[in-house]
Amino acid sequence: MADVVVEQGRVARAAGARKGSSLRNTLGRKSTVAFFLTLPLILLILLLVLYPAFYSLYLATLNKAMTKFVGLGNFTFLFKRETFWMVVKQSCIFAITAVVFKALIGFIVAHFVHNIPGKKQRKWRGMLLVPWVIPPAMSTLAWLWLFDPSYSAFNYTLSFFGVGPIPWLGETFWARFSVILVNVWYGAPFFLIMYLAALKSVPDQLYEAAAIDGANWWQKIWYVTLPMMRNIIAITTLFSLIVTFANFDIVRILTSGGPLDTTHLFATWAFQVGIQSSDIPLGACVSLFMVPILAVAAVFILRDVSKRGNEA
Amino acid sequence: MADVSLRKVIKRYDDVEAVRGIDLDIADHEFIVLVGPSGCGKSTTLRMIAGLEDISDGDIMIGGDVVNDVPPKDRDIAMVFQNYALYPHMTVAENMSFGLRLKHYPKAEIKARVTEAARLLDITDLIDRKPKQLSGGQRQRVAMGRAIVRNPKVFLFDEPLSNLDAKLRVQMRIEIKKVHQKVRTTTVYVTHDQVEAMTLADRVVVMNKGRIEQIGTPNELYHKPATRFVAGFIGSPAMNFIPCRLEDAAGTLQIRLTDRIAFALPPARAARYNALPRTDGLLLGIRPEHLTESHAHLDPGVETFDTVLDVTEPMGMETLVYFGLDGTPVCGRVNPNAGAKDGAPMRLAMDLNNMHLLNEQTGVVL
Q1: Spatial distance between the Cα atoms of B61 and A243, rounded to a whole number of angstroms
Q2: Contact call for residues B24 and B220 (beta carbons, < 8 A)
Q3: Are residues B72 and A211, on separate chains, in Cβ contact within 8 Å?
Q4: Which of B342, B318, B343, B317 has the alpha carbon at shortest distance from B332?
Q5: Which is nearest to B298 in space by CA: B219, B249, B356, B353?
Q6: What's the CA gap between B35 and B155, in Å, rounded?
Q7: In sequence order, what are the residues at sequence separation of 6 or more whose Cβ sits closer than 8 angstroms to the Cβ of residue B86?
């Protein structure tokens, strides 16, 4: 089918070249039609993605009152601030730890769910997806109650074991632990569902062949499952890394970046600097820093995906 | 290498019995083919020998040891799957050596075994390729190579040629036979293709509805089928079954096919069937090659009759002719030069020396 379409296009182009490029021929070309059909979407992307991106680049070069061009002044100012480097560090810790645990938990639970037979599996899948489908702003409020230092369920339960009370959100270590915990709880179902789909696409006969070749369960995972899922793992990891790195709502609701700005991520700090402290150029400057970091991560993670895609 | 025995093996899925009590003894070095229509339990039987399916009842023995509860990896078997089941992320060499690497064989020995198997299967040039870069036939060779390098007690083949085109299938069939002649490993081979079964097997096991219908050499099954199922399943085109009755006429036993067609049986057959009741409910089983054109010098026991052909199928070396006997469709094989034409009358000869008589009710060959 595709060949035919290409062939027709070539014929049309050849005919066009013979007759000279009249407007009618131009409009008749498949590529032109395709361009016009996608034009609304292209315009939408220009409007909603490119314009804000370039506008924030422009904003980042202005002074606080947005009246004067200061070039890279905001960037050099940021580099000198300790809080900025702490945000860089915390964003990396937050994103990497959360993604690793989400992937790990997603992988393990996906295996359990994969082995549940038939109808029961659908029920479990539905239930396990709940954290992911609740708006995070809502579910984080519930977590905020659970983390309350004086009358929360967590500290109440721990008191029976003679532990606590733990200042979940009041101390740097526990606050960082808590925001990561909530992010893992929220994001693991995404990995679960992606890995479950990937697991289902691995042919059973590969496992049977491995069993006959002498592989135990761990060797089956290592030599069959993981290599077969490599592309899905790479793409979900990248996607989750981007989303987690740019996380806003969980930190904003749980700690607002505290205590002492130690749980701030790029997005929450940009919000605090730009909106709450009314320095929009500096806020834009902060948020722009996510781009190079994520670009490097993307290059590393997706390095072999297209090459490997041809193997299966 | 080892012998394999199945004792009253049963496989139940919930309330369905897929395999209903199979007894089978496979000798060391033997090439056994399990053949039957889909759903007859042949693949399930093979998978039970492999350990990929639990058995519901009975015993499976490999090399004299009961292996009912032994996991596949400890049974020392190798299996070739219908869709090859090669690991797509590994090269040919890695695929073939996977089992040996898991068992921590020395590198030098792994290399030697892979090289030897690759040479045997003529895939030495492909050793560094990934499965994706191979054709169907090459993948099949790699799958066989993976089995050979392990030097297992038993080879199991699960319809290994059904994904190949007809020409390649014939070629690979010969390859498999050659490989077995060289390595002499006990082999259990599952197929639904009776030609594969006949050409490859030392002995063929015909299965139907979870039971063994008959076990025998290809020639035994062809010439002395035990049941109507075996008679109809082995051979292509299939054996004709024509309702008939035995009659006594002028001191001889004769077989009546229609009101106007009745043949005196040859003495050997007459003696064999003499004790049977002279009633309906019998079937004459006759293969198409024993229904040929009539000619001047007929052997004793070959009887002629006239009929009108419905359809003819020229095959080149022979022509298949189809006609009806009282509504029963019958197929014969005639010489392409015998002048068989659609709708034309023809005199045919039936070789009753090669006839079979079956009980229509029970399907047993009498």
Answers
A1: 57
A2: no
A3: yes
A4: B318
A5: B353
A6: 16
A7: A209, B95, B131, B139, B142, B143, B146
CA-CA distances (angstroms) from residue A94 to A144, A214, A272, B233?
18, 40, 18, 68
Nearest CA in chain A to B146: A213
Q: Which of B52, B73, B87 sits opposite A206 (nearest CB)?
A: B87
Gap between the Cα atoms of A108 and A218, Å rounded = 12
Q: Are B149 and B143 in contact (CB under 8 A)?
A: no
| Cα gap B74→B97, rounded to integer Å | 17
Nearest CA to A100 among A169, A175, A187?
A187
Amino acid at A160: F
- Residues 6 or more apart whose Cβ sits within 8 Å of residue B57: B8, B9, B10, B12, B21
pLDDT digits (tens, 9 = 90+) for A170-210: 888 888 888 899 999 998 899 999 999 999 889 988 999 99
Of A199-213, A249-263, B309-323, the range with the lowest mean pLDDT is A249-263
Q: Is the pLDDT of residue A311 over 70?
A: no
Residue A62 carries which side chain, given as an amino acid letter? L
Query: What HEC string does B295-351 produce?
Result: CCCCCCCEEEEEEECCEEEECCCCEEEEEEECCEEEEEEECCCCCCCCCCEEEEEEE
B83-114 confidence digits (pLDDT tens)? 889 999 999 999 999 999 998 999 999 999 99
CB half-sphere exposure, A77, CA atoms < 13 A: 16
Tokens coding A172: 């740097």
The length of chain A is 312
Any chain B CB within 8 A of the CB of A218? no
What value, to the nearest 5°, has the Cα angle with vertex B24 and ends B18 and B30?
125
Instruction: Please report the pLDDT score of residue B202 as a whole number.
Output: 92
Is A213 in Cβ contact with B99 (below 8 Å)? yes
- Residue B347: which of B311, B306, B298, B314 has the closest Cα? B306
Q: How far is CA A228 from CA A223, B88, B89, in A?
A: 9, 8, 7
Determine if the peptide bond prior to B160 is cis (ω within 30°).
Answer: no
Of residues B77, B87, B103, nearest to A212 (C-beta): B77
Q: Which residue of A has its CA nearest to B47?
A: A208
**Would you give the distance in Å from CA B247 to the centre of its chain?**
36
Residue A16 has pLDDT above 80, yes or no: no
Q: How many whole angstroms separate alpha carbon A53 and alpha carbon A59?
A: 10
Rounded to whole angstroms, how far apart are CA atoms A131 and B120? 57
CA atoms of A37 and B29, how far apart (whole Å):
68
The number of C-alpha atoms within 13 Å of B237 and in the hemisphere containing its C-beta is 21
Q: List the single residue in B with minimal CA-CA distance to A207.
A: B85
Give the mean pLDDT of chain A.
Answer: 82
Q: pTM of the full predicted structure?
A: 0.78
